[in-house]
DNA sequence: TTGTATGCGTTATCAG
DNA sequence: CTGATAACGCATACAA
């Protein structure tokens, strides 16, 4: 431990190596511009002392933090995990560090977190979900930091955008179920903005096709298996005639599937179930669950590229990218 | 957007408000020491311009980043979520920001991440799981940054520690199953260090009690439901005589329970299943799963307190805290 | 209560 | 290739 001692800096390394601080800086950042002897001396001292340069100082001087911040609604559940993993990997390859913050679906908290993030002057900010508060949008724009909103398509992005249309998903699922002969369908859904977009599109498309979409059962956050069970129970209590249910996540779908089984409601014969996310649980369930697949890895990679391109001063290839989605058919429908 | 424009600083705010930069700094940090008029003028400009102070500069000057870094093996799954949530909350209350990094159970990556973290000079570092590499331990100690290793008890902590004994869990589960009459038991387990500790203790205790612990089925990371199904299948293929299985996570246990059902193996009559973590899936499953409960919230809170106390220059109350565990009995055993 | 000078640790720039 | 100097944006110490 080094507690209490005054911090060890490049000056100290320089002193011990018998060179100037500038040479230490170069040895660390551009070793090819330092003579082999000097380099060896510096490296030896760095190794011995475990010296690590202070990123606050270098960030201040360079006006680059080599840091990208991601703001997630939640870490719970595997929903965003694939994307975060890809984001992290892509940023690391390019020499950036990822800093993750979770807002917990809470507006006040999101506001505070956003301030904290902007304070650190990251080279980019990735928002999972659109920034809706006008306050937040202003703060982001004023900061001059490149922003990518991910996981959602909106008409008025703060800056860049990579996502997919939740409305299109709602409609497509209705089409899919309609094509399979279902005429009375329902939803078990979370209550966040993106889920609501799907709920509305679901109802509208059903009406357009002339089939019945019963009122959805809303589940509280987080979307657990238990919430899925309770959601299906509520839906069936109200509308026992439904023959198919679209759940807003695979975890809810798994819960619904278990609840159906407990009620001796054969899946898919008596009740078809479709989830969303294509998490591993969907494929592993019994029966395997039909689901809406989102390519989280692709979103993460593209978001990283967008942010890095901007941080390097280039304009991004495209400021808005729709990566679409697909329905993965399995035994539950 | 403000791209390209030179960054807006306190000096600019000061100029616009017609005061000195120092007054702006005080208005932001110690408003009670600024006259109401000045305060109003500064706040007005800050509001209008959306000014946010640069944390790299203030951190450099104060030699405090007001940042705590947490290093997790993974974000996947709900295992650490309760702890992270509590950690985040406790730190926020005390004016610190939490920065999360995931090492992905990969040593090289962990090394790089650790460097990146130390560079930013956080006021504390929380490690989930013990730091095993000697390199990493040295780097941590040399940094002088307070460190808390969490989720595990080890004989030689780098600094502070809050966790529970994985060996004690392995032994307790054997005792529990033994008391219920089981004489041939097995495990479906992940292969990480902590899981292995439980595996070994499980085998030892079984031997001490004179009952049979068959060789465990190891599952690949991440611990999904599918891995649990496959794990149980493998175990039963090798050792069909087992009457109870301890799974190293609730997700694995859920998978095992589904696999058992598919094989018409009644739970718990023919096969008892016990999970670990007490995630919501455990209670929501059918049948509800017996599990080992860890108080992640408590770990998170204590870790935050330890780190903050040290950052404030105090010695922590206790440098090592064992928070224990409990077995939650449900219908699967 | 407000302002001025100074330095935090690093690197861009320019001189040798 | 190496070193001296200054500056990044902010807050501590001190002066007015």
What this model shows, in words?
The structure is a homodimer of 333-residue chains. Chain A has helices spanning 10-17, 21-29, 36-49, 55-62, 81-93, 107-119, 134-143, 166-179, 193-209, 225-238, 250-262, 280-284, 296-311, and strands spanning 67-72, 97-102, 124-128, 147-150, 160-163, 184-189, 212-213, 217-218, 244-247, 272-276, 290-293, 320-322, 326-328. Chain A has 333 residues and is α/β, with parallel strands linked by helices. Chain A has three domains: 10-49, no CATH class; 67-164 and 296-323, 3-Layer(aba) Sandwich (Rossmann fold); 166-293, Rossmann fold, CATH 3.40.50. In chain A, α9 (193-209) links the parallel β6 (184-189) and β7. Chain A is elongated and about 85 Å long. The mean pLDDT of chain A is 94. At the A-B interface, α4, α5, β2, α6 and α7 of A face α4, α5, β2, α6 and α7 of B.
Write the layout of secondary structure elements.
Two copies of one chain form a homodimer.
Chain A: H1 10-17, H2 21-29, H3 36-49, H4 55-62, E1 67-72, H5 81-93, E2 97-102, H6 107-119, E3 124-128, H7 134-143, E4 147-150, E5 160-163, H8 166-179, E6 184-189, H9 193-209, E7 212-213, E8 217-218, H10 225-238, E9 244-247, H11 250-262, E10 272-276, H12 280-284, E11 290-293, H13 296-311, E12 320-322, E13 326-328
Parallel strand pairs in A: 1-2, 1-3, 3-4, 4-5, 5-12, 6-7, 6-8, 6-9, 9-10, 10-11
Antiparallel strand pairs in A: 11-13
Helix pairs in contact in A: 1-2, 1-3, 2-3, 5-13, 6-7, 8-9, 10-11
Chain A binds a DNA duplex (16 and 16 nucleotides) through helix 2 and helix 4.
């Amino acid at each position: 431990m080094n507690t209490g001692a005054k911090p060890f800096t490049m000056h100290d390394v320089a002193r011990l190596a018998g060179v100037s601080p500038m040479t230490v800086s170069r040895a660390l950042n551009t070793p090819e511009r330092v003579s082999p002897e000097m380099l060896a001396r510096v490296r030896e001292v760095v190794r011995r002392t475990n010296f690590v340069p202070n990123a606050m100082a270098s960030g201040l001087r360079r006006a680059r933090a080599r840091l990208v911040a991601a703001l997630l609604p939640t870490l719970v559940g595997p929903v965003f995990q694939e994307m975060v993993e890809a984001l992290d990997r892509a940023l690391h390859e390019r020499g950036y560090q990822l800093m993750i913050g979770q807002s917990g679906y809470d507006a006040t908290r999101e506001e505070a977190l956003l301030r904290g993030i902007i304070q650190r002057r990251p080279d980019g900010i990735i928002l999972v979900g659109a920034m809706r508060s006008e306050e937040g949008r202003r703060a982001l724009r004023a900061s001059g930091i490149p922003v990518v909103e991910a996981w959602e398509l909106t008409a008025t992005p703060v800056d860049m955008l990579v996502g997919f249309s939740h409305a299109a998903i709602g409609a497509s699922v209705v089409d899919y179920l309609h094509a399979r002969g279902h005429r009375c369908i329902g939803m078990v859904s979370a209550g966040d903005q993106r889920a609501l977009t799907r709920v509305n599109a679901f109802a509208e498309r059903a009406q357009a096709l002339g089939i019945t979409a019963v009122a959805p059962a809303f589940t509280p956050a987080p979307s657990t298996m238990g919430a899925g069970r309770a959601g299906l129970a509520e839906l069936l209590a109200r509308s026992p005639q439904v023959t198919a249910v679209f759940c807003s996540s695979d975890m809810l779908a798994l819960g619904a599937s278990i609840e159906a089984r407990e009620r001796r409601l054969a899946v898919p014969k008596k009740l078809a179930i479709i989830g969303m996310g294509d998490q591993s649980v969907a494929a592993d369930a019994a029966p395997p669950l039909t689901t809406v697949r989102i390519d989280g890895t692709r979103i993460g990679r593209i978001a990283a590229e967008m942010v890095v391109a901007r941080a390097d001063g280039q304009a991004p290839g495209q400021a808005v990218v729709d990566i679409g989605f697909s329905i993965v058919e399995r035994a539950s429908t």
